[in-house]
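From the pipeline queue, job 12 of 40. The input is one protein chain; the requested action is below.

Action: predict structure.
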Amino acid sequence: MKKFKAFLPLIIILGAVVLFLVMTKLRTAPHAVEQEEHIPTISVKSFSQKTHTIKLTATGTVRSETAVTLLPEVVGKIVFISKKMNRGGYFRKGDLLFRIDSREYALQVESASAAVEQQEVRYQTELAQAKIAKEEWESFQKDNPDAEAGELTLREPQLKMAQANLDAAKAQLNVAKLRLAKTEIHAPFKGRVVERRVGKGQFVAMGSQLATIISTEKIEIALPLPVEEVALVPLDKKPEALIYITGKKEPIKGIVVRSAAQLDARSRMLDLIVAISPSQKKNSGTTLIDGAFVSVHIMGKEMKNLFVIPRELFHGEELWIDDGGLLKILKPQIIAHEKEHLIISGKSLPATISIVSSMLEIAVDGAKLQVAK
């Protein structure tokens, strides 16, 4: 009995092993279930290559072609400032903007005028003496035909000196008049005041900044664009541009006049410069504010073999193409970005392509597709 109890655990383990083997053999294998292949049903839109005129849209900054900081060219106290010289004020070409105390410069003109009169008298005196010397020499030469007159005898050096002194006096008078004229600072063009930096009664030196003004006669818009898109604009033909301002329905017409000379160091973009058309310059100054952002539409070049694809059909920069029932993920060459379309090159593509317009849960290149009927 004791021996049986000693082998009892081993008997239980062996029985459990035998039972497990019997149950494993008696277990029925599960039936294999065949999974049906899921082919998504899609909608497609077909597009064909065509000739297309590129329409570029860009946002740019309005700027005056001319911005000037007014600097005095004479020293003195400011005694007059135009009422138009307030921030945002309008002025016309030739308007008097500043006047510097001119009394000292007026006295310099009087002194220079007096000096001219003195030198004029000396010159006339010397001219008369030279005439007398010449007559005396001619009289002397009749009795002495072989004699030769020197310059001093005819008073030629003295006459030249008198002439030079007169010319110098006249030059000094012109300088004095010029300084007097510079005490008045007039508007060099029609424009507006950006900032005034001095007040009436203030003493200013040459080079002091009086004010900053901008011209409203010539307004430009700088449009930063990729170099590839700038190349799509026929600059030699001065194409038309439509300038749209926030809150205004009707655009202002402009002309693409040139591109910038160098790329922006940070963005690596190139500015395309648009100027206001001559027919609309009268209104441009009051409509377009310097520094404002505007949207500009430009007619570019006409090009062949292009696809014009709506933006909503793109997935980033990729298109999903139905290639005979198989999904083809295409990353096309984008020629230009229009407002509602992207223009892609038809090079190396068939004449007509079918683009998947439905959304796919998973887009895998080469996956099977089924076009909805």
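Job complete. The chain is about 30% helix and 35% strand.
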